[in-house]
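User: For my dataset I need records formatted as: sequence, then structure tokens, nothing else. Please produce one.
Assistant:
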Amino acid sequence: MSKTLPEKLSAPELDLLSPMLNKEGDSWTADFRGLTLRTALQPIYSISHKRIVGYEALIRAFDNDNSAVLPLHLFELPSSDAENLLLDRLCRYLHIQNYSGIKDQLNWLFLNVSPRVVTSGSQADSFFAQLLEKTSLPPHRIVMEIVEQPTDDAERLKETVAYYKKLGCLTAIDDFGAGHSNFERIWNLSPDIVKLDRTLLTRATEDHKARQILNGIVSLLHQSGCLVLLEGVETRDQAMTAIDAGVDFVQGFFFRKPTINLSQLSHTPADLDKLLQEYKTRNQVTQDPTRQLVDFFRGIFQEATSRLGGGSTMSQACQELLNHPAVSRCYMVDSKGIQIDDTLVSDTGVRSLDPRFRPLESTTSADWFRQQYLRQALAQPESLHVTAPYLCVTGAYMCVTLSRGYYQNGELRVLCCDILANPSQSQ
């Protein structure tokens, strides 16, 4: 780049950057160190809306022979903080200039911002505010993506994110779940959107436990007030995993690759109808066993609680339940959630006991009030309730719990029964 850069760049520097942009037909390019920079956009889809809700802007560099230069190599070119800041601003300028010319008055533009640039630049990025004013792009249509990296100045990063929010932009954390990302960053920055790293998706597609972890992360992020975007979706199975995880948005080659042909953006539909229909079919199959459990055990449970209400012992009342090969244990709880007497363990339950968790086996006088299945049974006596599979604290195995409230001598009690979620684990 022939232009001599100052030691430090002051905002807004639009006058310095404007000559580096060139109009080519309906789009813009930029010059940097003999390279031609172009904007590539990749659609971001809302699963529930079944349509595009935004685009991520990515920089594409080409040499004099029009051969592609890796973005990694492009961002290694700056030799000073000033030039690094200039390149970042030039990319943002180029992306916004291109996006503001697209006939789309609704969707978001996701812009990547390096923490190195954010923390070394001015908090009051008047350059960006004047850039939006110059291009007439409303700030509420911009999502500022902070790439997950360690930073020496976390407080400055927090202040900068707060500035973009005050400006009216949305903020996003990129690559969550990889490298240095953690929930502390979420608490500190309070982003509007969290982009999950594709490694989480890859593992979740291949491993059931990893899928449960992914689902849990999505749930925690939602409870933190963040919308969740899963990037790197490349296959149909990964798309189904994303849908099942409950993420809000998806992005990846399976739906559409980034393109520098911006005129084709309006022709990028994703057939989410078919994916959702397939999910509904699969989900119906996976949910049926739970409903079948209720249907199968309703009569047996009603008979057991009737016997208990009539004065039978737990062993007498629960004999048929304990003889079922999937049942691991039965126990009784009072209206305050306190377990009455010892747990009755079936032959199946005995085989599933792991000596490593022996300190957890005795549950006499245990307090189960925190458990949702107990509170439901107390709130709706005489109805049979069932949980989703969860990790049983008494043996660290996956189970499903059935519960039913009943009255014995005028006192409300709850009969609970744990069923192995995977009967093979008792073998």
